[in-house]
Amino acid sequence: MAERGLLDTSVVVDHDIVDVDRLPDESAISAITLAELAAATHATTDALERARRQDRLQWAAQTWDALAFDAEAARAFARIAAAIRSTGRPARPRVADLLIASTAAAHALPLYTRTPAAFADLGEIVRVVAV
Description:
Elements: E1 4-7, H1 9-13, E2 26-30, H2 31-41, H3 47-63, E3 66-67, H4 71-85, H5 95-106, E4 111-113, E5 128-130
Parallel strand pairs: 1-2, 1-4, 2-3, 4-5
Helix pairs in contact: 2-3, 4-5
């Protein structure tokens, strides 16, 4: 059976340099990733960089059907936020990362990321795969 997984925004942004052999056979992204990519297009005043970011957003939207942040993901977010708070760290500054992890948990998918430290302390809630 082919492995499925959810790609974090960091993997989408660096997709051209990521070793594809380390990615799942079937991948998806979260709607939160599309939101992060869309926001990034407006976070620069450099016209060339803005165009590159817009291209990346359009490529990602055409390449993957984004998984919605739905009621099941909201319930997973509650568990993830509680796990993070139990370590003494606040969940709020990392809310986009945690919403993406919640989407992975809701769909029972491992989360592939270039920034595994951002997803530390999630315990058994979601399997994090560093790429």
